[in-house]
Amino acid sequence: MKIVVNGESREVAEGTSVEALVAELGLAKAACAAEVNKRLVPKRERANVALREGDVVEVVTLVGGG
Known about the structure:
Elements: E1 2-5, E2 8-11, H1 18-24, E3 32-36, E4 39-41, E5 56-61
């Protein structure tokens, strides 16, 4: 199914969870926030939130600097 991740179209398997998507993006161990259709998904709920066709996902990470 097609979703949009950080502004880019992406194919994922039907029933992919937000947690699985974050892992697929290589961010499983990173401090990051995930939003689906402009709704923040708390980290503790990511495994239980399944993505659907057309969802718009934003995943952001912290970047340190000095």
